[in-house]
UniProtKB/TrEMBL annotation, chain A:
It comes from the Bacteria. Residues 4-167 form the Thioredoxin domain. This is SCO family protein. Coiled coil: none annotated. Belongs to the SCO1/2 family. The lineage of its organism: Bacteria, Bacillati, Actinomycetota, Actinomycetes, Pseudonocardiales. InterPro entries: SCO1/SenC, Thioredoxin-like_sf, Thioredoxin_domain. Keywords: Copper.
UniProtKB/TrEMBL annotation, chain B:
Residues 60-378 form the Linalool dehydratase/isomerase domain. Residues 482-504 are annotated as: Disordered. It comes from the Bacteria. InterPro entries: Ldi. This is Linalool dehydratase/isomerase domain-containing protein. Pfam families: Ldi (PF18566). It comes from Actinomycetospora lemnae.
Length: 172, 504
């Protein structure tokens, strides 16, 4: 038996969206998925990333309609669908939140090769934070990871790369 | 063959404006070339004290740091002699891929290391030596192949299966084992392991993430970026800094934290203040973290040095660990690593003192023009001077220290060669009998200093990338080289070293 190698390709997940609807990759088959992992109590990395990605989608213009932004929780104990819905609709309305049981979230993390690990945080009201991989993934309509960006990529870079990767719909 | 004991000729190696190698430096290069030409499975002079190739004096480290030393020499001292370095590096990488070097992983992958015995039920025997953990091997395969392809503007190791690990035994082992990678797939594989580990690093033995052994991977990412574009190295370094910020790169005494245990997130400091931990880590981390490494170096190194007679400097070692009633057998290579670190830091006084100690107390040996310091398991002589030396130090690290330049790795990382370098005239082939002590292009003129050793029949060089109308001179006299498809072939005259110029 060997460990997975290279870029994650076997993308599969079974989670719950922020309306409480069970979802899998097949629920979004045919869409381009812009996937960011994080947790709603995150004070720095997630707000920065979600703001950046929202700006990138704004810059993308009509082509953004081809993209479904997903925000996957790495903190399922706190991030219920209701919490995620409130968090995202207030500040990042383009995003759909996904969460699930700890086992479901763990499986999704493995599929994307995402790191996240709970650690004490005295500045957090609940006493912990969940440092995590801040990579943004683009999953193609075929369900395979088409590309990814590090946290350091700015909004314009993401927008430019999305425009170069996603074919626009033929005009009618 | 002649073997003689004696001085290395000079402890100090100055960097002259003309960048001419001295006798000792040439001797180390010859020794590395000789070792690279050993027949398969012949590891003469390279066997250390430990069994099983799982300690710090293993073949993989000797082979990899010969490649690093050759790369640094080419980059900084003989930039116009790719034909001297390329075949040697290729032969060393061939050896790095041999099962003798990586078969330890089949056993070590089971996770039974003393401090991790409680985890061994969660691990399994793994034959593929790079697929999981084992960054203490995989990063060297990655970085050495990328050094080759970067320095020689080559895609040799980008070919599918160019880095393949194979083993089959008639006598045991069942089906053949074959794991095919190339520089790109291996680099990608290591990168995603880094991502999945939160950039903290990839483990060596299961559960043990050493700072040291992740530095070569970062060098590899940088070289891959240079070759293919992107900024994986920048991303990994930023993530690495952030991940280690929780633990600190240094321990409470100001020495480098040795490693972190993945399961417990417990950091193991350099509790014994072992010189090799700081020296190895500091020398490598200077690639991307120059100011930090230089800031802490003077205080750290002072804890390890033992002044001796006549300006010699020895390096102390810590007593061998006693665990489970056993004495841990390990080639620490303390003196060699501190020499390599001092060289990278540009600490001439310390380097000269250590080399002087080695020349006086560690039996420098010349063998057909090759210089090495043979293994000696006797730790001290009757007067208490350190005499113990491991093959990693005697074959590799003292030569590496003589051949590196101040901030040599740092410059290799920060200012890699661009395409203009491989457009310049150069010695693209060098016969085995030819010693090259100078090879550089100054103001468009290729300058080389060549000498026949008289040990082998092949005494020619090929000057490649020759500008139209260029004139070839030997010791100031114009000569006609033999036109060949790559350029001009020159039969190096016998006798003392000859100065060769190719003037556009």
């Amino acid at each position: 038996m060997s460990a997975p190698t290279g870029r994650p390709t076997q993308i599969a997940f079974a989670l719950v969206d922020h309306t409480g609807r069970p979802v899998t990759l097949d629920s979004y088959r045919g869409d381009w998925l812009l996937v960011q992992f994080g947790f709603t109590s995150c004070r720095v990395v997630c707000p920065r990333a979600l703001t950046k990605l929202s700006a990138a989608l704004d810059e993308l213009g009509p082509l953004a309609e081809e993209v479904r932004p997903l925000y996957v929780s790495v903190d399922p104990e706190r991030d219920t669908p209701e919490v995620m819905r409130a968090f995202l609709t207030a500040s990042y309305p383009r995003f759909t939140g996904l969460t699930g049981t700890p086992a479901q979230v763990e499986a999704a993390k493995d599929a994307f090769r995402v790191f996240a690990r709970r650690r004490p945080d005295p500045d957090d009201p609940d006493g912990y934070a969940v440092p995590h991989t801040a990579i943004t993934y683009l999953v193609g309509p075929d369900g395979r990871v088409a590309r990814h960006w590090p946290d350091t990529a700015d909004a314009h870079t993401v927008a430019s790369d999305l425009a170069a990767t996603i074919p626009g719909r033929p005009s009618t | 063959m002649t073997v003689t004991a004696g001085s290395a000729g000079t402890a100090a190696t100055s960097t002259t404006p003309a960048r001419v190698l001295d006798e000792a430096q040439l001797g180390h290069l010859k020794h590395w070339d000789d070792l690279s030409r050993r027949l398969p499975h012949d590891w003469s002079l390279m066997q250390g004290k430990g069994a099983g190739e799982d300690d710090f004096g293993s073949y993989r480290f000797q082979l990899a740091y010969m490649v690093y030393g050759l790369a640094l020499t080419h980059r900084h001292r003989l930039p116009a002699a790719p034909g001297l370095f390329r075949p040697t590096i290729q032969r060393l990488i061939d050896k790095l891929l041999m099962p003798d070097v990586w078969l330890y992983w089949r056993d070590v992958s089971r996770g039974g290391m003393v401090m991790n015995a409680h985890l061994s039920d969660g691990y399994h025997e793994e034959w593929d030596p790079v697929v999981r953990d084992n960054i203490m091997y995989s990063a060297y395969v990655q970085s050495c192949s990328l050094l080759h392809d970067h320095l020689f503007a080559d895609d040799r190791y980008a070919q599918p299966g160019a880095l393949t690990f194979e083993h089959w035994s008639f006598f045991w082992g069942g089906e053949p084992k074959r794991f095919a990678y190339d520089r790109d797939s291996l680099n990608e594989h290591l990168y995603w392991q880094m991502v999945q580990n939160g950039y903290l690093g990839i483990a060596c033995e299961p559960n043990c993430v050493f700072q040291i052994c992740n530095q070569p991977a970062i060098l590899g990412f940088r070289l891959h970026d240079v070759i293919t574009g992107g900024d994986r190295a920048g991303e990994v370094v930023a993530g690495y800094q952030q991940a280690w910020a929780d633990f600190g790169r240094l321990d409470d005494t100001g020495h480098y934290n040795q490693m972190i245990l993945e399961d417990s997130r417990v950091v193991r400091p350099n509790a014994l203040q072992a010189p090799w931990v700081d020296a190895w880590c500091g020398a490598l981390m200077n690639t991307w973290n120059h100011d930090f490494v230089h800031e802490h170096y003077p205080r750290q190194v002072a804890d390890f040095l033992e002044p001796g007679p006549d300006g010699t400097i020895a390096v102390r070692s810590t007593p061998a660990m006693e665990v489970m009633g056993q004495t841990v057998v390990n080639d620490t290579c303390d003196l060699g690593w501190v020499a390599a670190w001092a060289s990278e830091m540009g600490d001439r006084a310390t380097l000269d003192g250590i080399l002087a100690h080695a020349d006086r107390f560690m039996a420098p040996t010349w063998r057909d023009g090759a210089l090495y310091y043979p293994r000696n398991d006797t730790e001290n002589d009757a007067e208490g001077h350190r005499t113990g030396i491991e093959p990693m130090t005697g074959n590799v690290l003292l030569g590496y220290a003589r051949l590196d330049v101040p901030d040599g790795l740092h410059e290799l990382y920060q200012h890699p060669w661009g395409p203009e370098h491989v457009a310049e005239p150069a010695l693209t082939e060098v016969g085995r009998d030819v010693e090259v002590s100078r090879a550089e292009v100054v103001d468009g003129v290729l300058h080389a200093r060549l000498r026949r050793r008289g040990l082998d029949a092949d005494g020619t060089v090929v000057l490649g990338r020759v500008p139209d109308g260029a004139r070839l001179r030997v010791d100031g006299q114009e000569v006609a080289g033999t036109p060949v498809p790559e350029g001009l072939r020159l039969d190096v005259p016998a006798g003392p070293a000859h100065d060769v110029e190719l003037v556009p």
